Each structure stands twice: as structure tokens, then as C-alpha cells.
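Q: Give me the 3D complex with zinc ion.
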Amino acid sequence: MNPLWTQQLAGLTEKGKQLLDDWWLQNKDKCKTLLAKTGVVPGMLSVLCLSAALQLTNQWQVVVDGKVLGAVKDPAVITSFVEELNTANKADYESASLLNEVKIARSHGIAVMPAEELKLVLADTLEWGIDGAVITIGDQEVVALADVSSAQSVIESLKDKVKEQLTRLYKNFNIVSIDIKEELAVVEKPVAISELVDEQTATAMLLSTRRPQQRAIVSRSYNRSVPEAPTVAAESAEQALVNIEAKVEVTETKTVPYKTEYVNDSSLYKGEKKTVTKGQNGTDEIVTLVTLVNGEVVDSQVKSITRTKEPVNQVIKQGTKIPVVSGSGRFVWPTQGTISSRYGYRWGKMHQAIDIAAAAGTAIVAADSGVVTYAGWRGDYGLMVEIDHGNGYVTRYGHCSQVLVSKGAKVTRGQLIAKVGRTGNATGNHLHFEVIYQGAHKDPLSFLR
Ligand SMILES: [Zn+2]
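A: Here is the predicted complex, encoded as C-alpha cells.
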């Protein structure tokens, strides 16, 4: 029996004395250990009798770090509960020790609460500490781990984490450098179990741009094997605790699209297309020096672009040939009348046509089938029609009073195309009729029989 206790216990009931004795036997080792420990804030679990002279009551108040948590009838329930917690923590961490000072003392005047309720309050209040380690950045302690080796491996894992991020971001890259900007250190020191995080969480905390809340409020449980993950404060998006700058050379292949060239081809009809060369895309290899901080790109500079494959332009021939209704090569008289002027020199000037005099409004027909290539006013011709017969022959009909076809129209031999008149340079109503073969004028009479 502790002599201090003997003194304090004077005046207690036999039952109370027995309780305290039992408790002391159960807890004295722990009390001594806690008191002997350096570094850890010495916790203390003791039962005090405030005054032997006090009226003896059958209730006990539980005081943690000087603050009364509540009162119960049976202090043994509380002491054994604290011991249970202690055992559970020790099972997880050999060096675990209570950080709070717990006193159980006689009390009166405080309403007694159910022991189970007080247990919950205690579980939330009491903290155990261990000989752990903290990672420091400069003189700031940023994260607590169970031991020095865990803390060291967290620091070592930071660069690996960055490499992982890079692998997710790029297919083909070379790491130029990875630098941790901050001065990180591991300090061995006592830490509260509730502050401990596992290595993975510690790594995430150090790299995250979001700060974990200073202290997550969680109800403690016996089972401490899984440390609580820090709750992330949603609103703060500050700079990360640790900034890791990675410089990487990223190689990317980019498609160089082919171009399409159109080449006119007179052997193809207008609207017809023919692919002569099929287009093929080329490729460029682009090497970019990318600087990332914690996986975020902060700078990017193209170092080189190498054409690894030239694109092949697509070549498409497009037709220009106007489709014609091919003429027969035989001509009909384009109008009814009398020849007023023949092909040849006339007053010292070459007349490249025949003139057929007829009354105004007399029908003019196509001498052969073909496509109208001109229909309208044309200088000295006045109103005229030009027909391409598609076989090398072109015919012209001048001085018309009226043109009845339009450019592009297909006409057949003998089809009405215009009416006789005296438009343009003409002295009387007549048809000026020309025959052109492969660009050269011919005497129309040699075709008309
Ligand atoms: Zn003429």
C-alpha cells in the first residue's frame, strides 16, 4: 500500500478503500512508467481523496488535465475502462502511454452520470502518445508517423510518386531532373497516436495542394490498427506543403495531314473526278521540355520537331471538257434565202462566211447537233449564236433579230435557234453563217448541198 494513499484514505469506507487498493495494484506500474518517461508529457492516473474530512459520499468525479468530465458512482468502472484503452493502445504501439493526467476523486454536488456515458466522453478525451517521428519542413512539423523509418520512407517515396504521375501523364518521356524544393527532415519525437498517419496518407498530405484539417474530430475506438485518414478541408486550395519540380523531355508523335491537289484534265468531262494519287498522312516527332510542379505543368517548351514521315499529297484530276452532243459532220442549210455574199475576199477584205439574205424573222436552225457555246450580243455580229459540234466543227450565226437558245443548251440538227435580222454591222436582213474547223475558217458552201 502506497503510504500516500494510506493517509488519503483515512475516513473512507471499507469498500472505497478496497476499490482504491485494487485500482492501485492494477495501475501502479503504468503510473510509474508514465512518470519516468521523458519527452512524452507525463500522464497520470490517480485517485485522490480531496479531503478526508469531507462528508463521505458515494460518488467520484473524473478529472482529466484539471477539467472535471463528470461523476460516477463506481470509480472502478472508470479505472478499468482507462486500463482497457491503455491495453488496446499498447497492443498497437508498444511504446504507447497516456498523455493526459487523469484523477478520480471523491466529489459531491455534481450529478452522477451513467458510467457508460462517461466512458464515451473519456474515450474522446484521452490521448496516448508513442515514440514516433515527425517530418519537418524548415522548422515546421508537418506530419507525424509511427517511427523514423516510416518517416524516411515517406520522403523517399515522394520522388517515386512524381514518377508515377508522369507515367500517367505521358507515354514516352525521359526524366531530366526531379527536385524537392523544400528542406525536409525527420525528427524522432513523441507524438500523439491520434495525430499519426500511415505512409501513404503522409505522402498524399505532403503533395496535396489541399490542407488536411488541423485535427479531425473523431470518436476514438479501441481498435487503433487503422489510423484515421485526415479529413480534407474542402475550401482551402493553397500551395502544397512540398513542391517537387520535375523536368521531363516528352516525345509525341503528331499527324501531319495530307493536302489535296486538283489538276485540270481536259480529257475528263466537267464534274468528273479521278484520284491519281491517294493521300497519306505524315508524322512529326515533337520533343517538348515540360516542367511540372506536383504533377501540374508550369512550363512547356518545344525543343525539336522532326518530320519522321512526309505526307503524300492526294492528287485528283478534275475534268474540264464540256460534254457535247457530237455532230454528224453533215450540215443543213441554216435558213431559207438567197446567198448575198460568198466566202472569200470582198472589197479587199476577207469575208469568212456566207451571207444568206432572208426576211426578218425567218427561222434560223442549227446546221448540225451540238452545244451552244455563245448566245447573245457580240460586237459586229450583233445578236449571234455559236455552236460547238464536238467533232472539231464550230458554226456561227450572226445579225439575228432574236436568239432563242442560251449558252450550254444542247441542240439537234435542224433545231430552231434564232431568227433572221440585221443587228450588229449589217446593211440588210440576212444571216451571216460561219463554219470553223479546228480553229480555221472554212467555206460553208463546201458543206452545204
Ligand atoms: Zn457576212
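A quick observation: Helices lie at 3-8, 14-36, 75-92, 115-125, 148-169, 199-207.
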